[in-house]
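Co-fold these.
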Amino acid sequence: MSASLAPECNDAKERYDSCFLKWYSEKYLRGKGTTDECAGLFKEYKQCLTTALKDRGIDKMLEEAREDHKENDTLNMRRK
Amino acid sequence: MKVFSNEETFDYSWEEVSTANWRKYCPWNDKSTHVIAVDTLSRQVDPQSGILRTERLITCKQSAPKWLSAILGGSDTSHVFETSYVDPESKKVTMVSSNLTYSNILSVKESVVYQPLSATQTQFVQDAKITALCGGWHKVKNAVEEASVTRFRENAQKGKEGFEAVLEMSRRVFGEEKQKLNGIEREKMVL
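Predicted complex below.
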């Protein structure tokens, strides 16, 4: 799996990524994946990452980009 | 504005491609070495549509030509923000991304779609719109856009080669795991 931009988050990221990939291929793609089983691991990884993004000043850039990407949601989040 | 478009076919099922896509930039991919980190920022399944929405931050090693990085500024890493949508029902992966770094000078908006062509083939369609925003000289803008498109094309070629390697390894590892499981099943049956 790929690394995190913050080396101190690599372990938490690795644990989460493995969990996600297993869930994605074995459950989600087979129509059995509505609940996120990896939420706990994601929380740990996210906690580490949030601090790293703030320290590097990337959080501000992300806010702007998120705004710009909102129109993509309307295009791609098809409702049934 | 310059447009870069590219289409590829992978001889793997959509399920394999969409799974391997999450680890496109792992060590098995020794071609796309300009990508040094991929972080997941948010992820959820939309309860209404069943679509998996993911936000990721991609960190790249700066590989712009020297004259261009002089214009862009001296940072050695750059960041890309990506939002992706997986629709398992219609079997479609859509990824849209834009540059975070230098966004006041250069706008790079990319979209990638993976869809099945058949049970064993998947189509990859890539589009990028590159616009230099620096005011003033048309010639400079044009050169900045040209250089960016060239780099994009190079990375796209490397990306395809690298992803092929990841797909091959994924299939091999998955096959070995399956064999192991089958072996265990067989042993159980014997016992």
